[in-house]
Amino acid sequence: MEEGCKFSGGIEKANLILSTGLLQRSWLSISELQRSPHLRFFVQNLPKCTIVAFSADHSQAAPEALQPTLQSLKSTHPTLGFLATKKIPSVSIHSAPLSAFLHLLDTTDLKEKILNQTVIDAGFLSAAQLKNLTSRGQPRLILVGESLGGSVAALCTLWLLKSSPPLPPICITFGSPLLGDALLQKAVGNIEPWKTQFWHVVGHGDPIPRLFLPNSFRPFGTYFLVSGSSCACFDDPDSVVQLLEFGRPNISSA
């Protein structure tokens, strides 16, 4: 992606992100992870941020990975139940990345590596621990992934945002499918600090981010729509849907 891109909508936020080189650095981390197919995630400590890149391979192996299968979550869900509230009693999430994320939490040291050995009980930090991290100048956490790896990164970001960290993590996805339904979109959109932490890079004609458009899936966060050397930034969900539809590849019927 070139520095000279032109933007519309969310121009200040877009310029801020691009001027840091964060998108380019995130893609480099994903590329490094792809060179090690046995790894399911990759942690890279940089001077001003820590990047956690998630692999898509472990979730793409399942036959339902790119099928529009939604799983409903209620407040009783042990990991992501906080997304459901009295006003939104349940949310629905793409089942393949949800299973992959929960498997990572259960079978790897993801918690410890992300939270630097400061995990407590349900995987969140106490007020004292948060204060300690802030006083040490903790680098910002960036969670990234391509395709379904980006969906796993988004779920991990939501899980971390529940603890209201003083320096919220940022999620950057590249060519990822939509993650959940309109109720998930509403749950994220209702909390201002949450909805601004998700950045989705979508190439013109890329079919993966557009797979679930005819179904019950809805976008949330800010979308960078890229075409050639130009790109535009949008965060209105209805506009994002329309623009994704517009960029859908033409597929001739059999």
Description:
The chain has helices at about 10-20, 20-35, 55-60, 95-105, 110-115, 125-135, 150-160, 180-190, 190-195, 235-245; strands at about 40-45, 50-55, 70-75, 90-95, 140-145, 170-175, 180, 200-205, 215-220, 220-225, 230-235. With about 250 residues, the protein is α/β, with parallel strands linked by helices. A hairpin with a 2-residue loop joins strand 10 and strand 11. The longest helix has 14 residues, at about 150-160. The termini are far apart. Residues about 1-10 and about 115-125 have low confidence and may be disordered.
What is the secondary structure topology, with strand pairs?
Blueprint (H helix, E strand, L loop, with lengths): L10 H9 L2 H13 L6 E5 L3 E6 L2 H4 L9 E5 L15 E5 H13 L2 H6 L11 H9 L4 E7 L1 H14 L8 E5 L5 E2 H8 L2 H4 L2 E6 L13 E2 L3 E6 L2 E5 L2 H10 L8
Parallel strand pairs: 2-5, 5-6, 6-8, 8-10
Antiparallel strand pairs: 1-2, 3-4, 7-9, 10-11
Name some characteristics of this structure.
single chain, 254 residues, alpha/beta, seven-stranded mixed β-sheet, two-stranded antiparallel ribbon, 10 helices, globular, disordered N terminus
Concise overview:
The protein is α/β, with parallel strands linked by helices and 254 residues long. The protein has 10 helices and 11 strands.
